[in-house]
Amino acid sequence: METKLLKGIPVRDAVLAELKAKMARAPRLPGLAVVLVGEDPASAVYVRHKEKGCEEVGFHHVTHRLPADTSETALLALIAELNHDQAIDGILVQLPLPDGLNENRILMAVSPEKDVDGFHPVNLGRLVAGEPGFVPCTPKGILRLLAHYRIPLAGRNVVVVGRSVIVGRPLSLLLSLKRDDANATVTMCHSGTKDLTAVTRAADVVIAAIGVPKMLGRDAVGTGAVVVDVGINRIDAPERKSGTRLVGDVDFAELMGHAGAMTPVPGGVGPMTIAMLLENTWEAMCRAEDWDDGT
Ligand code: NAP
After folding, report:
1. Which spans in 5-158 are helix H?
2. Pocket mutation for ligand 1, best pick of 171, 230, 278 (most atoms within 8 Å of C-beta)
3. Over the stretch 128-186, which tens digit does the pLDDT of each residue have?
4. Which of 128, 67, 73, 72 is nearest to 100 (CA)?
5. How far apart are CA 5 and CA 166, in angstroms?
6. 140 is catalytic
7. How far is the CA of 66 from the centre of ligand 1 (A)?
8. Which residues, including other chains, have CB under 8 Å from residue 138's CB and lie 6 or more apart?
């Protein structure tokens, strides 16, 4: 069986092109503030990608790089300042935060109207209720990617492996909404799931958001099923000059020729996450300005 690759970069490019076209009519520049605390190398790479995305579409952006020993009081003061900054429409606190900082308390401090990551309980509540709000970028990007490649979800059996508040849980909620691009029958799995392989093998669509390199192989996926790999794991690769490479949560080589369609890592879900962050920032500006962008 030929496995169709669901590449994220062309879809990301289309989203960015649409934003650039809208920018020509914008009342002002949308603004994104990114807060990076500490020296986590993966976080530093993600933040650079976000800065590059802003530059590509011409958004105003500011990155606050703070030392790992920043106090919670100082971080909360910065967020309060950004909440009141009229040039800033979106605030993103890069996770994970260093030990000693209470992630929940920090995320709760971001104004829900500037919470372009969609992690504030107000926005998560809006998602549960099916009300408009900011939807977390990775789940939103996965739905957009599947819609672009015309992968139907309505009525299909979708299994999400992972229940994090960032990916698995909001994604499961989103997939279950009564909307044309969702309406799936959703099963959310986790480390307590019994016989995970049997559950995933019965799925029409398997979405892996686990954080374990190459965990799902051929035995865990039915022939012809659609596979979305959210995982980004750096593993040793002595054959490479850098000594490492990125792999997902599914065994890409094993699933080639077995899955009906599959996202690559890198170049699948990752680029969609950034595109949705920019789209959410655009939407935040439109709401702040009470601007109808015609979509
Ligand atoms: P996380 O917070 O660590 O959550 C992982 C989930 O997987 C948990 O629910 C955990 O279950 C479950 N899990 C772990 N081992 C399992 C096992 N053996 N069997 C079944 N379930 C298992 O991770 P995350 O933040 O959701 O991220 C997941 C992956 O996606 C990571 O590789 C991350 O780097 C990547 N990611 C990618 C993007 C992107 O833009 N592409 C964005 C965000 C994250 P328990 O709840 O029971 O512990």
Report:
1. 9-23, 41-57, 72-84, 103-109, 121-129, 137-148
2. 230
3. 999 999 999 999 999 999 999 999 999 999 999 999 999 999 999 999 999 999 999 99
4. 72
5. 25
6. no
7. 26
8. 166, 167, 171, 209, 230, 269, 272, 273, 276
Q: Is the CB of 270 under 6 A from ligand 1?
A: yes
Q: Which residue from 156, 20, 31, 23 is spatially nearest to 83, judged by alpha carbons?
A: 31
Question: Which element (helix H / strand E) includes 243?
Answer: none
- Let me know if 94 is a catalytic residue: yes
How far is residue 242's CA from residue 227's CA, in Å, rounded to a whole number? 28
State how far the Cα of 272 lies from the Cα of 250, in Å rounded to an integer.
18
The closest of 208, 205, 295 to 249, measured between CA atoms, is 208
Token pair in block for residue 222: 């039915």
Cα–Cα distance measured from residue 134 to residue 117, given in angstroms and rounded to the nearest whole number:
7
User: Hunting for tokens 């990617």 — which residue is that?
Assistant: 145
pLDDT at 294: 84
The token pair that represents 73 in the structure block: 């009081």
Q: Which two tokens stand for residue 31?
A: 């603004």
Q: Which two tokens stand for residue 61?
A: 């952006």
Share the mean pLDDT of the chain: 97
Please provide residue 248's backbone torsions phi and psi, each rounded to the nearest 5 degrees. -95, -165
pLDDT in tens, 215-243: 999 999 999 999 999 999 999 999 999 99
pLDDT at residue 295 tops 90: no
Q: Domains in the chain and their CATH numbers?
A: 25-111 (3.40.50.10860), 137-269 (3.40.50.720)
- Beta strands, E only, the chain: 4-5, 31-37, 60-66, 90-93, 157-161, 185-189, 205-208, 226-229, 233-236, 244-247, 261-262
- CA 235 vs CA 21, 228, 232, 247, 249: distances in Å: 39, 20, 10, 7, 12
